[in-house]
């Protein structure tokens, strides 16, 4: 009796999972076994292991890694300082606020800032460095991505720092540890869960970026995300696009497992 | 060597956001004694501990260690270790690594660390628990780990911030004996913070009674129990009967509408005073043989004694601890020795510095 009632409550969840998670993944896997003419084939998988795609995978990884790294380098001290401020919730809100603005709008804003006649170049001119090509470079791509992902890195680290018992810091100091040793041996290890969560929240979406690569990096940076977009929208090779997506999903699952085992 | 002063507070004041937590406090801590800072919550006792540990700096005044001012010396540079109220054990390290933390920071050799940690764990009866996680340890065991982690660094002074408050009664009593014993064996100075007067009386060589950021009285447990300087101390240290009275002349005091001989002197004639009589000093007798005539209002059985609450004709409440039983509503006499009366000055504002 009781069980059946519980199963009824479970139904919306199962429906959701089936329609929005299992079905799309199944369709992607299914699509990946067809070539551009609609014949059943394994060729897509063979093609993935050619230098072109492997290089793309590697470059995706590399940029996602860079984006995650810089986000972490900026976000950890930021979160740390935030926990020390008086109105921390307000400051935190200030950092989260940009995520409420549409991603595309933010990217377009950077097109303006980094453009030849934009603010960045105006400043460079003023200090005498002269106009530089900023848009469509690796730098601008990583910069804009980091800017967009920082809130997702700050939030879990901030929460982990907030949960840290302040008397543990006192205890470490009391036992003779310098501020740096205290950070290295107590604060950082105990906020590692937050760091992992933040890295997941940044690394995984960064792997499949496509809009920023196109607009800011001018397709000079080709990642798996851009490749999928190209295959689905331009070359119409859905099979190949789906195959890349399958690999992307596997890589993401792997990353989750790797950074997982959270308590 | 016996009377060597390790720590000296000289007119130390501490404010937090304009709120005075410690108000011009001065005292000395000598080597090898067990000190207790006793007071209600918010009296400033933990602040004193944090000042000694170096977690916070005084707003005014100077703290000396061995005669050297240490106001700006950070916690990690002080020969002092703390046992925290919540123990503050590192959850990501096991018992061994927790205890070894201070030694590793000092970059001690691995073999030496192993020896010292083993010794410290043996001191607190935790041999064989080295590889346990902190989460697997009970409250009492965590307490011991916290103590081992502090004493392994061979501090000159061990600070204990209400370390027993999280334990149940039986364990607490047990730990009181153990801590006292530990202090004797180590021979180092303990500064113990508590709001539990029984704990303070049982363990200390010297007690500082604190109230509202000031030291009300300092002395041995016996001094403080027998000769409280004012109403606050008398009330805070154990249950007492405190009444307003008048010092007629030396050795004669008036309260509850009668005059009694006492052993106190040196007051002004007719000075308004507070008098204290401890409940265990009151003896139940027949109504006509007592010094006071009271009516029993209620009675509680406390195990070792009965706690009897009585009222005299003037409406003063008298608390009596007696092994004899009384009947509620019965009229009884209360007898007490002249020595049982303790006369105190009425505290009038901030006269004393």
From TrEMBL, chain A:
Major localization class: membrane
Superkingdom assignment: Bacteria
Topology of the protein relative to the lipid bilayer: Multi-pass membrane protein
Places the protein is found: Cell membrane
Boundaries of every ABC transmembrane type-1 domain copy: 57-259
One GO CC term, this protein: plasma membrane
Pfam families per UniProt: BPD_transp_1 (PF00528)
Keyword annotations: Cell membrane, Membrane, Transmembrane, Transmembrane helix, Transport
Gene Ontology biological process terms, A to Z: transmembrane transport
Record-linked InterPro entries: MetI-like (IPR000515), MetI-like_sf (IPR035906)
TM segment ranges: 7-30, 61-83, 90-114, 134-158, 201-218, 238-258
Entry similarity comment: Belongs to the binding-protein-dependent transport system permease family. CysTW subfamily.
Full protein name: Spermidine/putrescine transport system permease protein
Higher taxonomy: Bacteria, Bacillati, Bacillota, Bacilli, Bacillales
UniProtKB/TrEMBL annotation, chain B:
Transmembrane regions listed in the UniProt entry: none
Keyword vocabulary terms for this entry: ATP-binding, Cell membrane, Membrane, Nucleotide-binding, Translocase, Transport
Similarity section: Belongs to the ABC transporter superfamily. Spermidine/putrescine importer (TC 3.A.1.11.1) family.
InterPro entries given in the database record: AAA+_ATPase, ABC_SmlMolc_Importer, ABC_transporter-like_ATP-bd, ABC_transporter-like_CS, Mo/tungstate-bd_C_term_dom, P-loop_NTPase, PotA-like, PotA_ATP-bd
Description of how the protein assembles with itself and partners: The complex is composed of two ATP-binding proteins (PotA), two transmembrane proteins (PotB and PotC) and a solute-binding protein (PotD).
Catalytic reaction list: ATP + H2O + polyamine-[polyamine-binding protein]Side 1 = ADP + phosphate + polyamineSide 2 + [polyamine-binding protein]Side 1
Gene Ontology molecular function terms on file: ABC-type putrescine transporter activity; ATP binding; ATP hydrolysis activity
Signal peptide segment: none
PROSITE patterns: ABC_TRANSPORTER_1, ABC_TRANSPORTER_2
Enzyme type, top EC level: translocase
Stated role: Part of the ABC transporter complex PotABCD involved in spermidine/putrescine import. Responsible for energy coupling to the transport system.
Domain ABC transporter: 7-237
UniProt-listed Enzyme Commission number(s): 7.6.2.11
Pfam family, one: ABC_tran
Source organism, top-level taxon: Bacteria
Protein's recorded name: Spermidine/putrescine import ATP-binding protein PotA
Annotated GO CC locations: ATP-binding cassette (ABC) transporter complex
